[in-house]
Amino acid sequence: MSSRYIAAMERELVGLQDAVRGWSVSERALRRRLGAGEIDAERDDDGAWLVPTEWLDQEFERSVIDLRDPAVSDGLAAVLAELTNMSEQVTAAEVRAAVAENERSAAETRIRRLTDELETARAEHDRLQHDYSTLRQEHAVQADRLLRAQTEAEQAWRAWEEVQAQADADRLAAQALIDRLSRQNEHSQQKLWMLESLASRRKRRLFNRLADDFDRDPSQQP
């Protein structure tokens, strides 16, 4: 292996075809700049040009995104981590809202059952009032049952109101969390759009530069 080839490997040199595939530049433009002596290039053992990748990165935009680039990989990792965290928080909020809804439904079921019992006790109480003279003792028992049923109904109602208030608070908190996460997601999307816009502007500048090169006097082109 020649010393020149070893030096080329250390400098990360690429051939013209690799440069065209890896960067937004034409072979004609590269040969023109080689002819003008603008590139500190070398030749391999077969006489083919080798161009430094460092110079290509400074002059042209890469055709594909290099995931090995720390800026690209770190940015993607941060966005993915943020989206994953937001998804987990949304899921947890939905679970809490579902639990609160189940508790509210259970409380409503208990209220309906106790209300039915209360209405039954009241109907029995009304019937016993007609037989008060002969069934006074039984009436007292039924009155006691009615009182207990009313007490349980009031307790159940208060419990339902507490559960309902908590369920409303949980739903509001969950909705607020979902809204906040939605704004964060929109903010992340805006950052991605900004990155894409920046990349597009760099490509437009490169296109304008290449267009200017092609618009020059043909007699000055190789």
What do these coordinates show?
The chain has a three-stranded antiparallel beta sheet. The chain contains six helices and three strands. Mean pLDDT is about 80; it is low at about 1-10. With about 220 residues, it is mainly α. About 80% of the residues lie in helices and about 5% in strands. Helix 5 (about 70-130) packs antiparallel against helix 6 (about 135-215). It is rod-shaped.
Question: Which stretches are poorly predicted, pLDDT < 50 over at least 5 residues?
Answer: 1-9
- Binned strand content: under 5%
Helix and strand sequence: HEHHEEHHH
**Amino-to-carboxy terminus distance:** 33 Å
The biggest beta sheet is recorded as: 3 strands, antiparallel
Number of helices: 6
- Give me the count of strands: 3
Spatial strand order of the main sheet = 1-3-2
State the secondary-structure class.
mainly alpha
Silhouette? rod-shaped
Q: Mean pLDDT, nearest integer?
A: 82
Helix content: over 70%
If you compute it from the alpha carbons, what radius of gyration comes out, rounded to the nearest whole angstrom? 40 Å
Can you give keywords for this protein?
222 residues; 78% helix; rod-shaped; disordered N terminus
Question: What is the strand and helix layout of this fold?
Answer:
Elements: H1 3-11, E1 13-15, H2 16-22, H3 27-35, E2 42-43, E3 49-52, H4 53-59, H5 70-130, H6 136-215
Antiparallel strand pairs: 1-3, 2-3
Short description:
The protein has helices spanning 3-11, 16-22, 27-35, 53-59, 70-130, 136-215; strands at residues 13-15, 42-43, 49-52. It has 222 residues and is mostly helical.
